[in-house]
């Protein structure tokens, strides 16, 4: 009888364990992520670097979808320079049940409504490219930032000019007055990146014992056409006095090049340095129109945006090669690009 009872007990135990396992498996199947909806709002879809970054994000989403079998929807909308429009776009993402929202802020000082909307719905939000104030990012435990190391590109621009002066001083200091006459093309009034890039580029040159003379500056809002328009006027005013043009991004630098090409004054084109390492910018470096640029890693940042959104939705860890600091920030370093190494960076975009 004891043996029969023991057998019956064992059978019952096995049945219970199987049932529990079945329940657990059913629960896992029920909670399995089948689709991820990512809403993205960019400050301006016509910004060349942002457009390239979005292409990288979409490409990484397709690759991740193929690897995991999870459907990944990336919905990108253009705020067209309007913070009010961007606020409305984020509200629609929240109301339509998107899993993660990514925002390239129009106004980096005004993220309050966006953070409040995401927080009220418990939706993670990833800011990118335009860094908000740290105090704002800390307000919400599911708010993150993906971008680059802010001070690096200005320093790199300054270093490239210093290196060229050491190697070929006569090609830069055309009037041989031991002073560099320069024009600064600034991205946007009051914008953190424009201020920092401008300051660090000039300071790096001065700290290397080189005298500079600022002929003038122009705000061209990161835009190629505006860069050309502003340089047309500056060339009229200063002509061959301009020895260096320091541009806060490649697009404005390309606008400056356009101004010289249209005037058929390529023999007088000054040393021009940009920032971003866009394909058009890199091509200008290869062709000798632009001396150098600071490559902003759109490939790495696009991948990090996708991987972070994926991890936030699925609860999985980030890949080991993506490093997050302060549990908030993912940053990529810039790289100096001149004609000597430009092919390496062009190949990234091909």
UniProtKB/TrEMBL annotation:
Subcellular location: Cell envelope
Superkingdom of the organism of origin: Bacteria
Location of the Periplasmic binding protein domain: 38-316
GO molecular function: carbohydrate binding; metal ion binding
Organism of derivation: Kineothrix alysoides
Protein name: D-galactose/methyl-galactoside binding periplasmic protein MglB
Pfam family, one: Peripla_BP_4
Keywords, sorted A to Z: Metal-binding, Signal
Summary of subunit composition and partner proteins: The ABC transporter complex is composed of one ATP-binding protein (MglA), two transmembrane proteins (MglC) and a solute-binding protein (MglB).
Ranges annotated as spanning the membrane: none
Taxonomic lineage: Bacteria, Bacillati, Bacillota, Clostridia, Lachnospirales
Family matches, as InterPro entries: MglB-like_PBP1, Peripla_BP_I, SBP_2_dom
GO (cellular component) term, any one: cell envelope
Membership in a protein family: Belongs to the bacterial solute-binding protein 2 family.
């Amino acid at each position: 009888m004891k043996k029969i009872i023991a057998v019956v007990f064992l059978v019952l135990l096995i049945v219970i364990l199987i049932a529990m396992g079945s329940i657990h498996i059913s629960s896992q199947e029920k909670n399995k992520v089948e689709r991820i909806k990512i809403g993205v709002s960019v400050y301006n879809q016509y910004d060349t670097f942002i457009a390239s970054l979005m292409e990288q994000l979409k490409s990484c989403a397709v690759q991740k979808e193929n690897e995991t079998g999870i459907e990944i929807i990336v919905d990108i909308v253009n705020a067209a320079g309007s913070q009010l429009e961007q606020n409305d776009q984020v509200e629609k993402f929240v109301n339509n049940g998107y899993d993660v929202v990514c925002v390239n802020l129009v106004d980096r000082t005004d993220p309050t409504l966006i953070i409040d909307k995401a927080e009220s719905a418990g939706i993670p939000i990833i800011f990118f490219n335009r860094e908000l104030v740290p105090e704002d990012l800390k307000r919400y435990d599911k708010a993150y930032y993906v971008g680059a190391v802010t001070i690096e590109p200005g320093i790199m621009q300054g270093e490239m000019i210093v290196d060229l002066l050491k190697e070929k001083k006569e090609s830069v200091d055309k009037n041989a007055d031991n002073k560099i006459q320069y024009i600064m093309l600034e991205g946007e009034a009051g914008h953190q990146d424009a201020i920092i890039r401008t300051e660090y580029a000039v300071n790096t040159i001065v700290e290397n014992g080189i005298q500079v003379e600022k002929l003038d500056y122009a705000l061209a809002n990161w835009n190629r056409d505006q860069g050309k328009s502003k340089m047309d006027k500056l060339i009229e005013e200063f002509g061959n006095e301009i020895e260096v043009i320091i541009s806060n991004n490649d697009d404005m630098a390309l606008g400056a090049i356009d101004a010289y090409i249209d005037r058929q004054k390529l023999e007088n084109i000054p040393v021009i340095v940009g920032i971003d390492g866009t394909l058009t910018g890199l091509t200008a470096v290869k062709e000798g129109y632009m001396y150098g640029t600071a490559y902003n890693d759109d490939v790495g940042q696009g991948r990090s945006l996708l991987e972070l959104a994926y991890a936030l939705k699925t609860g999985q860890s980030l890949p080991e090669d993506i490093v997050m600091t302060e549990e908030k920030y993912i940053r990529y370093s810039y790289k100096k690009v001149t004609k000597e190494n430009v092919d390496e960076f062009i190949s990234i975009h091909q």
